[in-house]
Amino acid sequence: MSFVALAIATAFGVGYIPFAPGTFGSLAGLLVWALLPHDWASQLAVIVVLFVAGSWSASAAERHFQSTDPSYVVIDEVMGMLVTLWMVPVGWAGAILGFLCFRLFDVIKPYPANRLEDLHGGVGVMADDGMAAVYANLALRATLFIAASLGWSAL
Fold it and tell me: pLDDT at residue 153 above 80?
């Protein structure tokens, strides 16, 4: 069972990339988004499954690596990208903008994201990225609104 938990937590090994694992985990999330049906219900179902499976597997990974929120755990970034792009009608340019927004908010962790990472175990690992992704989703929506107001439709 430990092997399965680590596979999920590391997004099937993406987390073992030796530099910028969170960025690569976010790119994996972008790939998952591209492969999913672009309807709200399918994406929400995957987000919920990833949160539950990620919480369980991140807890197991913390025990395995004997550290809190080890850098190898990137399932939270995969889920974060799906939350960032959930119900936002974008093409690839908008998805990449969403990726950049999520990475920014995941790094700076504005309140309450910075407090959610203090939650126990894998729930904390997943929750702070979920909150950062909500911020990224809102920032992406605001950017799209402003772009549409200016007549830009390339996103």
Answer: no
